[in-house]
Amino acid sequence: MDQIKIGKFIASCRKEQGMTQAALAEKLGISDQVVSKWESGKSMPDLDKISELCGYLGIDVNELLSGEKLTMEQYKEHAERNLIETLNRSSFTLKEKIEFYKKKWLKEHIAFMVMLAVIIVAMLVAGVIMKNSVVIAIAVVLFPVFHAIRYNSMMIYVERSVYDARGNQQ
Fold first, then answer.
1. In the chain, where are the structural domains located?
2. Mean pLDDT in runs of 10 for the chain (170 residues)?
3. How far apart, in whole angstroms, are the C-alpha atoms of residue 126 and residue 119?
């Protein structure tokens, strides 16, 4: 994909619709600097904005990614090429995304997990010192319970980060 060609095409379509960069940006809920970066070829629209952008510009996604209006004869050829290029450029596979968010969650929750481990060890030590088997039993039971709760909260976090409400990959 030629970002500069796509940028020029966005600018051309925007002007055909009689919109300024600021007007298009306002409709999309972004800044006009973002639209300027698209039009200069410095960046591409985020996936969550592409469909809406195409609607405002009166084009389809295939035309946007091709950087030109397409005839019916060109459409299929461009669609397959655009799909392959897009897939090749995607930075994360689903498995990589899941691993990324698991690591991110873990980094964000290490302090809690350390605190939990310290509390459980303290309970075990207190139970041994007091020779109280009830405290030891509680500590032994709490560890897997808290671990399961934290693991489930991680999986919820990962699923919300990787998938949208319909179960589609984001």
1. 3-89, 94-162
2. 89 94 93 92 87 92 89 83 73 74 81 83 87 84 81 79 59
3. 10
**String of b and e for 109-128 (b: at least 16 CB within 10 Å)?**
eeeeeeebeeebeebbeebe
Q: Scanning the structure block, which residue is given the tokens 């873990």?
A: 106
Q: How many CB atoms lie within 10 A of CB 63?
A: 21
Note the residue count of the chain. 170
> Is residue 94 helix, strand or coil?
helix
Report the largest interatomic distance among the alpha carbons of the chain, rounded to a whole angstrom.
83
3-state class of 152 per DSSP? helix
| Torsion, Cα of 84, 12, 52, 97 (10° steps) | 40
Question: Do 162 and 170 touch, CB atoms closer than 8 A?
Answer: yes
Contact between 128 and 169 (Cβ < 8 Å): no
44, 39, 47, 77: which is closest to 164 by C-alpha?
47
CATH code assigned to 3-89: 1.10.260.40
